[in-house]
């Protein structure tokens, strides 16, 4: 009976496999390899043992501005990286679309924003964005030390584009990182991301 | 115009004193969306609900968002400042549009969009006007996105009479015309099926016809993360049941109890839609372990149900005959044959059950709206069953003996005939058992019919095994055979006696047929019975002369042709869809009832009365017993009228897809089904209560209390 069951489960899993892999919370995060703006090669598989945050961003998007102009994102980046978290900001804006930047502009922007990411990846082809099914800016992913995706979704629970809602918002990424620090799973594993669409 | 737009300054001047700390809110200058907030009334009265409209005139090429924005974006948000007594209802969203932003997709609006917002003034409102102010934030996008802001203030005087604002009449007409039509009462459900996200709509035929003609059909879910927005769904129709299949996204279905949304259809660029509230399809086991637990339980119940069937009045005569034959065998110490017969009988039962189940599963997967007991919804089946019962009855009465061929006439216990006879008895037992669906069985069969075919078949096999079990035991345990009383003359008498319950059973079948197909069909059945008796009598004759022989066979052939022609002639159900409600079939003259139709029922559901739904069929014996014992009693009627209960009776005697769909909502595949819907409390109807399948007046009373 057990054999039959496992066969059935397998058969179902086969049928259920979608055409392209969407990252699923609780499953290993899709591996990727890319160059950051400093020219370093970043590979997810090489970062095992570290907690990783992926942040999809587009400096022209009002929702990204909400979190950068208020200093909210930078503070979160600092808090995270101080705790040994690897923070990767990713720009998937295609050439000619809003938010598309080159490495030089990215470096200038880092200074201007006072951003505290570990790496920034320019993903103009959108390959990385599609691999993670990144939909909005910001769209946040947290990967634990075993390479498992433990959080995917919005940065916080207030969809407004206004900065002054930030102090009363619940920051899901901070929550997830704190839970991981205590050796727990994040209480909220996935939420609906909000913001501008990723400009593929 | 009584609606006044104040300047921002005035707004804060008027409201800031009592206002919650709302942030400094700067209206956007030169926005991409021109907005207005309007009221449909120039004056309102206490206790009235009036509407506001938030109008968006969106710059060409830009779009704003529906409540679920799709892959990105954000729906307009409202922060109200209002007197505490005033209630602002949920925003009513017009039918949205799919706006592709390759590879993503948004749900939203282009051009002009009106959101309708109901406002309720309580009956004990003391103010002389309703003063409202709102901060509205929305996101407008094309390639880039801009959050925009506006503030509004308006007041509507409270007077004796409501007065419509003529100036806004056209806007409100347009706004309401673009809202989705009511459809939350369609039986809609959602489920994950083979990695797809499936939404199922049992549409009223009127809606189905409209939607079938559409160029594009789409369901907009209000919940995020269930389905891939960018993909177009696969559209499947089964009569008026629509299924949309989407690629599944990863959000756990357990997080959702009711999936609200809009079923939209676009015909010649005109968008329209229905408001939908879908519930999770109950029949899909959420996880494997639960399913297995359910399976074993269903198998056990089916087996027990089968056992109990043996005691039903329709099966018992057949069974006792079989049991008696074992007594004979024991007399002759034929233990080997006893086993063989028991196996033959079991096979007969199992095979016929599997055949029935197979037909049912096949028909269901072909989309027929049928359920357990469907066999008896066909007048032809009732006709054949009555003839078979009549033949068996004649046999029991001693009118003739079954013998296969002249040579075997004297050797009634030959092996071949015995096994075949046992097999035949098994078939017969199944046929007559189906109307006596035991209480245990409805649940198990309901489970069986919504399972994958092989699981369903297993459940039916368990049922058959239960039915055959006593005979199987008797065949294999000689000690049991010895307990059987010794054969003798009494056995012949007992056999003859057993014919009478069978004749009564035939009377019941005749009555069922009368409900289904009318008096003519009954006449035809009686002709059939006479013809059958005539054929049997003819077959008994052993004429010697060639002429007599030829005449005999000629008559036999002629009679058989008549027997076969009858079903083709007059045994059509009176109507395939309409319930066969007649005074006889549902004799509840002393309490008014409404025949169950989706439309009537849904209308009542929206009303104020408590509702009682009785799903029944003329051929359902347990339904009839319940009606006599617990429902059609003075006490229950009094209770109904005290509680102002509206009684709905669904007659499933003939096929009726609406009733079948209703039964399925409760995970049932057959009647009886009794459901009580308490009267709404504060406008909200408490969840319905399902009553057990065996009723007592006490159960009915305690449910209604």
Word description of this protein:
The complex is a heterodimer of chains A (200) and B (705). Chain A has a single domain (23-197), classed as Glutaredoxin, CATH 3.40.30.10. The N and C termini of chain A lie far apart (48 Å). Chain A contains six helices and nine strands; from the N terminus they run H-E-E-E-H-H-E-H-E-H-E-E-E-H-E. Chain A is globular, with a radius of gyration of 17 Å. In chain A, strands 5-4-3-7-8 form a five-stranded mixed beta sheet, covered by helices on one side. A two-stranded antiparallel sheet of chain A has the order 1-2. In chain A, strands 6-9 form a two-stranded antiparallel ribbon. By secondary structure, chain A is of the alpha/beta class. In chain A, helix 4 links the parallel strand 4 and strand 5 (119-122). Chain B is an alpha+beta fold. Chain B has four domains: 8-177, Thiol:disulfide interchange protein DsbD, N-terminal domain (Immunoglobulin-like, Sandwich), CATH 2.60.40; 187-280, Immunoglobulin-like, CATH 2.60.40; 288-570, no CATH class; 593-704, Glutaredoxin. In chain B, the strands form six sheets. In chain B, strands 15-18-19-13-14-17-16 form a seven-stranded mixed beta sheet. In chain B, strands 20-22-21-23-24 form a five-stranded mixed beta sheet, with helices on both faces. A four-stranded antiparallel beta sheet of chain B has the order 1-3-9-6. In chain B, strand 18 and strand 19 form a beta hairpin. Chains A and B meet through helix 1 and strand 9 of A and strand 10 and strand 11 of B.
């Amino acid at each position: 009976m057990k054999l039959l069951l496992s066969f059935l489960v397998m058969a179902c899993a086969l049928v259920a496999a979608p055409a392209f892999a969407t990252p699923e919370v609780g499953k290993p995060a899709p591996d990727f390899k890319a160059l950051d703006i400093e020219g370093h090669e970043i590979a997810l598989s090489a970062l095992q043992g570290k907690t990783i945050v992926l942040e999809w961003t587009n400096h022209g998007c009002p929702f990204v501005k909400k979190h950068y102009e208020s200093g909210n994102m930078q503070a979160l980046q600092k808090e995270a990286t101080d705790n040994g978290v690897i923070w990767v900001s990713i720009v998937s804006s295609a050439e000619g679309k809003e938010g598309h930047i080159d490495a030089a502009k990215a470096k200038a922007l880092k200074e201007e924003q006072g951003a505290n990411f570990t790496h920034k990846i320019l993903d103009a082809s959108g390959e990385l964005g599609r691999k993670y099914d990144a939909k909005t800016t910001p769209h946040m992913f947290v990967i634990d030390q075993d390479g498992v995706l433990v959080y995917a979704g919005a940065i916080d629970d207030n969809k407004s584009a206004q900065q002054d809602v930030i102090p009363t918002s619940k920051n899901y990424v901070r929550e997830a990182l704190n839970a991981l620090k205590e050796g727990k799973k994040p209480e909220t594993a996935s939420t609906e991301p909000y913001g501008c669409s990723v400009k593929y | 115009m009584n609606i006044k737009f104040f300047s921002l300054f005035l707004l804060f001047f008027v409201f800031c004193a009592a206002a919650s700390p709302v942030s400094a809110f700067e209206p956007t200058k030169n926005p991409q969306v021109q907005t207005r907030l309007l009221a449909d009334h120039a004056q309102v009265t206490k206790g009235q609900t009036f509407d506001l409209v938030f109008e968006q005139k969106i710059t060409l090429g830009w779009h704003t968002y529906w409540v679920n924005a799709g892959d990105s974006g954000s729906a307009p948000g409202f922060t109200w400042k209002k007197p505490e007594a005033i209630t602002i209802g949920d925003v009513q969203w017009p039918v949205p549009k799919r706006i592709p932003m390759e590879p993503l997709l948004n749900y939203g609006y282009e051009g002009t969009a009106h959101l309708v917002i109901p406002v309720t003034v309580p009956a004990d409102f003391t103010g002389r006007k309703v003063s409202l102010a709102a901060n509205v934030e929305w996101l407008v996008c094309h390639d880039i996105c801009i959050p925009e802001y506006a503030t509004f203030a308006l007041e509507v005087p409270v007077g004796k009479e409501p007065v419509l604002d003529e100036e806004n009449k056209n806007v409100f007409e347009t706004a309401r015309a673009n809202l989705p039509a009511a459809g939350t009462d369609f039986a809609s459900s959602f489920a994950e099926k083979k990695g797809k996200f499936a939404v199922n709509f049992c549409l009223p035929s009127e809606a189905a016809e409209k939607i079938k003609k559409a160029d594009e059909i789409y369901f907009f879910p209000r919940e995020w993360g269930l389905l891939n927005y960018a993909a177009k769904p696969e559209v499947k129709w089964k009569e008026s049941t629509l299924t949309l299949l989407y690629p599944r996204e990863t959000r756990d279905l357990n997080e959702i109890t009711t999936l609200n949304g809009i079923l939209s259809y676009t015909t010649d660029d005109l968008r329209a839609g229905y408001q939908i509230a879908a519930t999770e399809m109950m029949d899909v086991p959420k996880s494997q372990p639960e399913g297995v637990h359910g399976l074993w339980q269903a198998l056990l119940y089916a087996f027990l149900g089968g056992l109990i069937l043996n005691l039903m009045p329709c099966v018992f005569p057949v069974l006792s005959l079989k049991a008696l034959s074992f007594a004979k065998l024991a007399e002759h110490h034929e233990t080997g044959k006893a086993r063989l017969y028991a196996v033959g009988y079991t096979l007969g039962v199992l095979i016929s059950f599997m055949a029935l189940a197979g037909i049912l599963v096949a028909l269901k997967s072909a989309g027929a709206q049928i359920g357990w007991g469907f066999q008896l919804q066909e007048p032809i089946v009732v006709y054949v069953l009555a003839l078979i019962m009549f033949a068996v009855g004649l046999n029991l009465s001693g009118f003739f003996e079954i013998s296969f061929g002249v040579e075997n006439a004297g050797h009634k216990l030959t092996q071949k005939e015995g096994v075949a006879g046992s097999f035949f008895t098994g078939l017969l037992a199944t046929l007559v058992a189906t109307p006596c669906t035991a209480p245990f069985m409805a649940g198990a069969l309901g489970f069986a019919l919504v399972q994958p075919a092989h699981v369903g078949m297993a459940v039916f096999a368990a049922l058959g095994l239960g039915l055959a079990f006593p005979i199987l035991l008797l065949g294999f345990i000689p000690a049991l055979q010895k307990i059987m009383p010794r054969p003798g003359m009494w056995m012949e008498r007992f056999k003859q006696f057993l014919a009478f319950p069978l004749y009564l059973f035939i009377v019941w079948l005749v009555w069922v047929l009368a409900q289904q197909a009318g008096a003519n069909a009954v006449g035809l059945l009686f002709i059939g019975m006479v013809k059958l008796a005539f054929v049997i009598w003819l077959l008994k004759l052993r004429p010697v002369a060639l002429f007599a022989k030829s005449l005999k066979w000629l008559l036999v052939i002629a009679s058989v042709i008549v027997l076969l022609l009858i079903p083709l002639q007059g045994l059509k159900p009176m109507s395939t869809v309409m319930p066969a409600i007649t005074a006889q079939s549902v004799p509840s003259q002393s309490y008014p009832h409404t025949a169950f139709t989706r439309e009537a029922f849904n209308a009542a559901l929206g009303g104020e009365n408590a509702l009682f739904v009785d799903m029944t069929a003329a051929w359902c014996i347990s339904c009839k017993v319940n009606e006599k014992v617990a429902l059609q009693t003075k006490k229950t009627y009094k209770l109904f009228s005290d509680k102002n209960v509206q009684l709905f009776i669904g007659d499933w005697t003939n096929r009726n897809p609406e009733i079948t769909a209703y039964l399925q909502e409760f995970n049932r595949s057959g009647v009886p089904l009794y459901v009580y819907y308490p009267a709404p409390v504060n406008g909200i109807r408490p969840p319905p209560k399902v009553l057990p399948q065996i009723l007592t007046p006490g159960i009915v009373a305690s449910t209604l209390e």
